[in-house]
Amino acid sequence: MVLKERGYRQVSLPIPLIERIEKYITNHKEEGFTSIPEFIRQAIREKIERATKNNG
Questions:
Q1: Residues 6 or more apart in contact with residue 55 via CB below 8 angstroms
Q2: 3-state secondary structure (DSSP) of residue 46
């Protein structure tokens, strides 16, 4: 089901995963990520794009 609402929703993630993301952002500044939410949004976009290409 696709929601037509606009805005934001909150998602909880395990602290170890957040720490891994923080470490990645710090160690890969050339990637251009400046925040955890920015990294997560991009990761989700890429995952959806790959899944869509693979599943039609």
A1: none
A2: helix
Structure letter (DSSP) for residue 31: G
Among 23, 30, 25, smallest CA distance to 41 is for 25
- Asked if 36 contacts 23 with a C-beta cutoff of 8 angstroms, the reply is no
Q: Which pair of structure tokens corresponds to residue 37?
A: 């939410």
CB atoms within 10 A of CB 33: 19
Q: What is the pLDDT of residues 11-54, one digit of tens each?
A: 999 999 999 999 999 999 999 999 999 999 999 999 999 999 98
d(CA 38, CA 23): 14
